[in-house]
Please model this.
Amino acid sequence: MALIGLLAAACLAATVVIAADGDVAGALIPLFLTLWFGHVAVAVRMLRRPVRGTVRPRLEAIDDGSVGLTFRYRTAAYYWLAAALVLTAAAIALFAVAMRSAGWGYTVVFLLLAAITLSPLTVMFRRPPGRLTLTPGGVHHHGFAFTCFTPWPVVTGVGAAVLAEAPALIVEAGPSPETRVIHALPRLLAGWEQRLFPLVVVQTPLLGSDPVIVYRTVCHYLANPYHRVELSTPAAIDRVRQQRFLLPR
Model:
């Protein structure tokens, strides 16, 4: 990430120098590279740095109409990730055009690569934003590309892990007839959420709330099943905001 940031800074400096010499058109290329490297650097940083000290619980319905306590993904995550993908695809497309002299075969291959780079957007914006929802019946996670529901009786614990250098919240669970996969990708394209199922995996940097508070919330309702009835009411929001958790020692 530091290297990408340095490249962005170098391209910005080149943009200023070239523009100062009066070559505005020539400055467009380093300007584009500045935007590209800058967005990629911020997107990578966002995937590694969770929100701290903020909690935004709300009540929302899941796929079956059940209402539960919800922690949404950050809206900014959608912008930075989508912008990084679009700029990367644009860079590949520009390179494809530049490769015309080498033969149209190369151009077609790189244009296809640019289209593949954009393909995650069709999944990301299918039903944004992502969210983790706790209902009286279970745990529902709607990620970028994988959506599932796990009933409380098969949830055995809550933990944390680091997956590809990104922290994640892990809701440990086993299989159940009531467990359901609502949306998934082909296995070849699957991410961590799908590969580790029936564990519920949430990449915490994507959450708009402090993952420590989210973790303690899940722990509370796992350890205190008689409180789960409040998950569809404002009482759950009050509990989270006041951090009135009864956690096992």
About this structure: The two ends are 38 Å apart (CA to CA). The first strand starts at residue 57 and ends at 61. Strands lie at 57-61, 67-72, 131-134, 138-142, 147-151, 155-163, 166-173, 180-183, 200-203. The helical segments are 2-20, 28-46, 75-98, 104-118, 120-124, 192-195, 211-223, 234-242.
